[in-house]
Amino acid sequence: MKNVTDSFVFWGHWPSAGSFGFNTDIFATNLINLSVVIGVLIFFGKGVLSDLLDNRKQRILNTIRNSEELREGAIEQLEKARARLRKVEIEADQFRVNGYSEIEREKLNLINSTYKTLEQLENYKNETIQFEQQRAINQVRQRVFQQALQGALGTLNSCLNNELHLRTVSANIGMLGAIKEKTD
After folding, report:
1. Which pTM was predicted?
2. Confidence grade of residue 19 (pLDDT, cut at 50, 70, 90)
3. Contact indicator for 28, 7 with CB cutoff of 8 Å
4. What is the chain written as a DSSP string?
5. Which of 28, 46, 61, 128 supports an S-S bond with 7, CB 3.0-4.6 Å?
6. Are 25 and 4 in contact (CB under 8 A)?
7. Are 21 and 15 in contact (CB under 8 A)?
8. Nearest to residue 27, comparing CAs of 15, 10, 43, 46?
9. Per-residue pLDDT tens for 116-157?
């Protein structure tokens, strides 16, 4: 430790200028060397360091400006996107409302159409029933008439003998002849 303090205490004591030699005091020589190197660096490196710092400052400022421009562009795009979203939501609500209205309208149309179809089917059914009833009535009448005719023919055949038959035929022929003479 004594050598360290001695090197600081005796700064004023330098060897004479006429002699040349090595200074073996490490701390004294290091401080001088460091101060010389730092001085040279400050003197010559000041411009370079200043230029480097100025370039760095300009790059940072440009980056900040670009970031601000990008931020403004992003905000503008966000606002546009929000406006489009609001517009699409309004349109979706309108489609939803119109869709529900359209569904209700179609539902009512379908119900009305179904009622009309059922009414037509009911009318067709009633017409078919009336037609079938009329046909059945006509068939019954025809059978009754045929049975009555057969019964009358059977009664007539059983009551008529040959002589009565010949007289009836002769009377009918006479009537037809009289009708013919009147028309001629």
Report:
1. 0.36
2. low
3. yes
4. -HHHHHHHHTSS----TT-------HHHHHHHHHHHHHHHHHHHHHHHHHHHHHHHHHHHHHHHHHHHHHHHHHHHHHHHHHHHHHHHHHHHHHHHHHHHHHHHHHHHHHHHHHHHHHHHHHHHHHHHHHHHHHHHHHHHHHHHHHHHHHHHHHHHHHH--HHHHHHHHHHHHHHHHHHHHHH-
5. 28
6. no
7. yes
8. 10
9. 999 999 999 999 999 999 999 999 999 999 998 888 888 777
Residues counted in the chain: 184
Domain ranges of the chain: 33-118
Amino acid identity of residue 67, one-letter, is: S
pLDDT-derived band at 22, boundaries 50, 70, 90? low
Query: How far apart, in whole angstroms, are the C-alpha atoms of residue 165 and residue 179?
Result: 21
Q: Look at the block and give the residue holding tokens 């003479």.
A: 181
Distance CA 48, CA 122 (A): 106
